[in-house]
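Reminder to self: tokens first, then the designed residues, so the page reads top to bottom the way the pipeline ran.
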């Protein structure tokens, strides 16, 4: 992949395997840099890569710890 290769929103969505709307929302929120030199919105591949890597999920222990049950002698 070339770093400064411009992509359309559709191409970026296909490359990242997410929807057009996800990419468009990221641009609107300011999370993903985009350029509009004419009528077409373009995203640089390096910006798309940075945005995509920022969405990495880190392992988190889910749930709460189990309670310890105390057994009282009878």
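Designed residues (74 positions):
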């Amino acid at each position: 992949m070339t770093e400064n290769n411009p992509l359309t929103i559709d191409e970026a969505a296909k490359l990242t395997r997410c929807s057009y709307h996800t990419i468009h929302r990221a641009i609107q929120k300011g999370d993903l840099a985009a350029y509009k030199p004419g009528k077409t919105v373009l995203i640089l591949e390096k910006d798309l890569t940075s945005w995509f890597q920022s969405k990495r999920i880190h392992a988190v222990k889910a749930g709460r710890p189990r309670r310890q049950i105390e057994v009282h002698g009878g």
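Residues 28 and 34 are 9 Å apart (CA to CA).
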